[in-house]
Amino acid sequence: MAHEDYLGEWEQIVLLAVLRCGDRAYGVPVREEIRVCTGRAVAPGALYTTLDRLENKGLLLSRMGEPTPVRGGRARRFYCVTRQGREAVARAQTAYLQLLQGLDLLEEGA
Amino acid sequence: MKGAGCAEWLLRRVTSRERAAAQVGDLLEEAASRGAGWFWRAVLGAFLRQGWREITAVGLAAWAAEWLSFRLFLLMSLALREDAPHRLDAPFTWAAFAYTVLLYSLASVATYACVRFGPRDPLTRVVLCLAVGGCLSGFFWYQPVLRWSLPGVVAALLLLSVRHPRLFTPTRSAVGWVLFGTALHLGILLSTGLAFAPVFGVVVSTSVSLAPALQGMLYFQQDGHVFWPVIFLIVLNSSSITAVWLIGKAMQRGCGKRRLAGD
Question: Shortest CB distance from A72 goes to which of B28, B42, B48?
Answer without folding.
Answer: B28
